[in-house]
Design a protein that fits this description.
One of its GO terms (molecular function) is ATP binding. With 560 residues, this protein is of the alpha/beta class. It is built from 20 helices and 10 strands. The structure holds adenosine-5'-triphosphate (ATP).
Length: 560
């Protein structure tokens, strides 16, 4: 994690320099206090006045240094955390879809929020505090050796005990912190899951059941936090107890030297203050070292993300679709056991329109997912103009193919942003997409028109309106291949017919449409219908040919 500090070398150097100055000033307080006490007990007004001037100057300089130090730390912290979060996020956003889907996204959310907060406190802030403690400790120790070697020796021997604590407790503390971080991650997954299904929770009156689940998850997270806090508390208390023993010992020894005339009261005050500057940092040092060590497993988690293969391939550049897509003997299984596609063969020719129909669970959506390379562990080939789709640059593949999904995701922004996806399209392109997607009436009736907010995941819109926005989003992208997965299921028959019709009228567009709506008028407009039955391509042909066969499609059509 320190590499993020090294990126801002000058700021880090200034931070270190001011940390050293601040620590030195802390230790210097002992000498200033000695001066003040000696001047106070000497009876000389001039000495007292000089001591007060020195003390006031000390207060002034310390507060300025302290203020600068706080600003420098805040600035470095901001830069390091911004860089770290940006790097993690960039790594995640460039993952391929299948790699992204391997993990629950709430875990990544927890990493970017909870774990980063832990790092902020226990790594970065802690590291500089550690430096303050270390420098303060060294300077105070040197000063005390010069003041009284016996007191210094006494402290040296006792301080070995708190210093050994990170070695003894560090591993267990790290384990507890990681368990806490993991349980917070699982807790975030649970909350995200519950809030995403809020309407189901209400609609099925399962609040009590959900509350029970939530309480278990919350209890586990808090138990892990409690265990960590208890463990950290025990190590901190032990360090504090040793600190107090050292404090008492120093006072006893100083008193002995004062009684024997080997030390003045001023020196005794200075020795006690210096001892404070040794014991306090030492107590803090051991607990800070423990906390620093405890971030190791979080650092490992972050490194796992940063070093994980993102699933992207260098890939071949492909900027146009010229001829055809071929599925050659494609078989695929999600779980490595049951094949959901079995030796599927078909060809999609440029500019032609294809419908994919079949039984529920027959593998229609899976065909589209494989074409878009959501998964690449299938057998057989999917060739686009003769090039294996797994070898085409992902970025280029998505410039050739657009998909309209069954479940449409809406960003919490305006209708326009959800159509353009924040790209700067011409107004005429936007208007054209709105018209073709049948969105005109909706936009006219809204107060803010195209700039109206859609709400979180489109909660201000109906299912059909969301589908139309998704269709406009695909039309405006204007890719040569359009893939539609049940995108008109929430629309009434007339609207669905009109939209599908206008898409089918786009002359050069190659269309692959998964549909459940077996409407004769629309189906007749497709050049070919591919019929999937339990993962195999059972039939293909035009509507007329398939009806003539009186096979699986014929039955499907007559049941629908
Ligand atoms: N991510 C997944 N993990 C495991 N199995 C999956 C996954 N997605 C789909 N399946 C399974 O693969 C099979 C084919 O699913 P697919 O979604 O392709 O069918 P479909 O023909 O589009 O179905 P429907 O018409 O009901 O939408 C089904 O048995 C489904 O349960």
């Amino acid at each position: 994690m320190y590499k993020y500090m090294l990126k801002h070398k000058l700021l880090t150097v200034f931070n270190i320099a001011f940390t050293i100055i601040d620590s030195a000033l802390n230790v210097a307080l002992a000498l200033v206090l000695k001066l003040l006490f000696e001047a106070g007990s000497s009876g000389s007004i001039i000495e007292l006045r000089n001591a007060i001037v020195v003390f006031s100057l000390y207060i002034f300089v310390s507060s300025i240094v302290w203020m600068i130090l706080k600003a420098l730390r805040a600035s470095l912290l901001r830069k390091c955390l911004t860089d770290l979060k940006n790097q993690i996020f960039t790594k995640i956003i460039y993952r391929s879809i299948n790699v992204f889907n391997e993990e629950n996204s709430a875990k990544s959310i927890s990493l970017l929020t909870n774990d980063i907060n832990i790092l902020e406190q226990d790594y970065y802030t802690n590291l500089f505090e550690l430096l303050t403690n270390l420098v303060g400790f060294i300077i105070a120790t040197i000063a005390l050796i010069r003041l009284n070697i016996y007191i210094a020796l006494f402290i040296f021997i006792l301080e070995l005990i708190p210093l050994s604590m990170p070695v003894v407790f560090g591993k267990s503390l790290s384990k507890h912190k990681n368990k806490y971080s993991d349980s917070i991650g699982l807790f975030t997954v649970k909350i995200k899951d519950i809030f995403s299904g809020f309407e189901v929770v209400k609609g099925f009156n399962i609040e009590k059941r959900i509350l029970k689940d939530y309480s278990i998850s919350n209890g586990e997270a808090e138990l892990a936090r409690y265990r960590y806090n208890i463990f950290a508390g025990i190590t901190d208390s032990l360090a504090l107890a040793f600190g107090l023993i050292m404090f008492l010992g120093t006072i006893g020894l100083s008193r002995y030297f004062v009684i024997n005339g080997k030390m003045t009261i001023g020196y005794m005050i200075a020795a006690t203050q210096l001892m404070n500057n040794i014991v306090n940092p030492l107590v803090a040092l051991s607990s800070r070292l423990n906390r620093l060590k405890s971030t190791k497993l979080i650092e490992d988690k972050i490194n796992d993300i940063l070093n994980k293969e993102d699933g992207s391939v260098e890939g071949i550049s492909k900027n146009s679709f010229d001829d055809k897509i071929c599925f050659n003997n494609v078989s695929f299984s999600y779980d490595g056991e049951k094949n959901v596609l079995k030796n599927v063969n078909f060809t999609i020719e440029k500019g032609r329109k294809y419908a994919i129909v079949g039984n529920s669970g027959g593998g229609k959506s899976t065909v589209l997912k494989l074409l878009l390379r959501y998964y690449d562990n299938f057998s057989g080939d999917i060739l686009i103009d003769g090039i294996d789709n797994r070898n085409i640059k992902a970025e280029d593949l998505y410039k050739l193919v657009t998909i309209i999904h069954q479940n449409i995701y809406m960003f919490d922004s305006s209708i326009k942003d959800n159509i353009t996806l924040f790209e700067g399209y011409d107004d005429t392109d936007v208007e054209n997409a709105i018209k073709k997607a049948g969105l005109g009436a909706l936009i006219n009736k809204l107060d803010h028109g195209i700039n109206s907010a859609v709400g979180e995941n489109g909660c201000n819109l109906s299912g059909g309106e969301k589908q139309r926005i998704a269709i406009a989003r695909a039309i405006i992208k204007n890719t040569p291949i359009l893939v539609i997965d049940e995108a008109t299921s929430s629309l009434d028959n007339e609207t669905s017919y009109n939209i599908e019709n206008s898409i089918l009228n786009i002359p050069d567009l190659t269309c692959i449409v998964v549909t459940h709506k077996l409407n004769e008028d629309i189906l007749k407009r497709y050049d070919e219908i591919l019929v999937l039955k339990d993962g195999t391509l059972s039939e293909k042909g035009t509507f007329g040919e398939l009806m003539g066969k009186k096979g699986f499609f014929y039955n499907l059509y007559n049941v629908a």
